[in-house]
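#structure-requests
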Amino acid sequence: MHFFTCCALLLVVVTLPTCYVQAGPIKDQCMAAAGITAQDVANRHETDDPGHSVKCFFRCFLENIGIIADNQIIPGAFDRVLGHIVTAEAVERMEATCNMIKSETSHDESCEFAWQISECYEGVRLSDVKKGQRTRNHRG
């Protein structure tokens, strides 16, 4: 994965408001529920399989920010949650690509499904972030 892709996704996951709530507290809640640390999330690409707990963290996170529900992507969720910070082209590309991912119905497989969705959404590039958002979010 490219450095800028990681930066763009972490920017989205860690700092941006989503649907009336801050992503940070949701991230913290989901890490606690999955029994993992921020370092575990950061290290997720160091092996071929980050482990069940990391995958379940993403299920919790994506459910709580309104991207997935009942083992499927909520139609229009990517645009609703991230459309204000990424370009329309990025929204179209992510929805066309990621919405093709389907899940089985078991709880364990819902974690795998969420992991696949998070991997797909990491296709967002720094160039997809709207210019005003890049400047605003780099200030910290």
